[in-house]
Amino acid sequence: MSKIANYLRSHIAGSVSTRADWRASVSADAGILAATPELVVAPRVVSDIRKITRFAWQMAEKGHTIPVVTRGAGCGALGGAVGQGILLDTAALDTIFEYDGKSQRVRVQPGAPARSVAAALSMHGAGVGPLTGQRGTVGGVIAASAHGTLLSRATNPAEAIDQIEVVLANGDVMQTERLSRRELSQRKGLPGFEGDIYRGIDAIITDNAALIEQINPNDTSGYSGIARVKQPDGTFDLGPLFVGSEGTLGVIDELILKTEFFSFRKTRAALVFRSSSDAQAAIDDIDTLQPAQLSYLDAVIFEQLRRDGRKYAFYEAAAQQFTPQAVLLVTLDDFNNRTRARKQAKLEQLQSAGETIVTIVEDDDDEDVAAGFAALDQYRWPDAAHIGAPRLFEGFYVPPQRFEEFARALVPLARALQLPLPLAGYPSLNLYGVYPRFSLRKVSDKQKIFKLYDELTKLLALYDGHLVMSGGEGRLKTRFVRAAQNPDLTALYQQIKQLFDPHGILNPGTKTTLQARTITAMLRNEYTVDWQ
Ligand SMILES: Cc1cc2nc3c(=O)[nH]c(=O)nc-3n(C[C@H](O)[C@H](O)[C@H](O)COP(=O)(O)OP(=O)(O)OC[C@H]3O[C@@H](n4cnc5c(N)ncnc54)[C@H](O)[C@@H]3O)c2cc1C
Description:
The protein contains 22 helices and 20 strands. It is of the alpha+beta class. The longest helix is centred in the last third of the chain and has 20 residues, at 443-462. The site of flavin-adenine dinucleotide has 37 residues, from strand 3, helix 5, strand 10 and strand 17.
């Protein structure tokens, strides 16, 4: 590898390193898998990415495959940003170029932290829904299809994209945007790889129209973005294909994102319920208020936090009266003060002595309630570094009409696995996760991770859910996704991958059914927290 490092070093502007400490620092994400790359490259300019992928392509043509694994902040939990070969770290590509208030667009590099972009836009009273509250990079959020949870804004990253620039597997650069029929014909007429891709994808869509129509919009596994490429009016945009593509189709090197006006005044409410069914009924009431955010947490999470020594006054007030079963956290962000006051009054009406305790605060001036909104993160990472609840079982979809049955079915599963399975999520989006804590030092716990994936996949199939709505599949979920997937759809996604990456150099192993022993060999003994 040092020969390759020297070659790349003499050709690119960014850093190239085989240092053990740097390689170790990017060998894991916030999940349970690790693999040390042979080489870390941090491009400074787009042409660096082009040279790296072109080099890997040329090597592959000579029969020597060197994987190129793209990594943002490594906040994902599913092993998508971890791998051997060349690790392409986008950290230095972190420029926020411009915000155009007129067109409400922001142009950024992929390595810009989502938080920095959100902070910069907040000065203009604007924001991008899916970037809000995210810890990763813009490229990582888009590539992992990490959904936003602000209900009045775009939640699916695909809705927030205007244009993307991508470096393809052979080093060519392609810009995506929505094209008219005529423009599509022009692109299909292009010589070279870009033309091949336009011709290939258009043919795939034509040949598989009925199959593509069956893709559920709540299932973002595989290359489900294919369903958004061609619209009924004949317009065509390859951008959606890169949402959730997890570095397997190309390297995103620049993005133009749609922004929306944001209100930064917040009313927050914490509601603690004696019974889960009351919480469910309240969810329906609160939904009619069109809150900015509504999250549901199993009270088991707060009970565990109490045992860990972390207490919240709003929860304690309820726990003195009854044994809580569920907590709802609500944010109102209406621009109009009177609207917010009216909604606040409706929330207050949900208070019921001995049954439901409602605590409402303005902005973030109440630290107790504000901290309560981060309770799940507190719960996920207790003090011992080998114990944690990473986002392995997060991001699944359960249809509202099946939710209660699904939640009930988790109870015997938790018993069978001897594992608490606290449920949390965003009921208005039907987006949930379960958060068991595992010790990475116990073989039995490691086995339970895979048993739980297996059982959860079966339950979701039974209740018309989908394992992957948000956050991608990485190296961990694909085996289970495919177990429940129509084999024709699996074949379609493989065709797409083959078209973009015929030599299999872009993030091999991600979105691939890996053998159990390959995964086992990558298992770690300690976690890295994802919320600092
Ligand atoms: C189910 C789930 C839900 C999550 N929800 C949240 C949440 O609500 N809030 C939160 O803060 N975090 C959340 N995360 C964690 C994490 O913040 C997101 O996954 C985030 O998108 C990761 O960004 P990152 O920069 O750390 O990407 P990484 O973890 O570094 O990479 C993620 C994937 O994107 C690919 N990738 C990264 N950059 C590029 C690029 N430029 N071009 C092409 N591919 C690229 C990588 O190859 C990898 O496959 C969630 C994670 C999961 C698994």
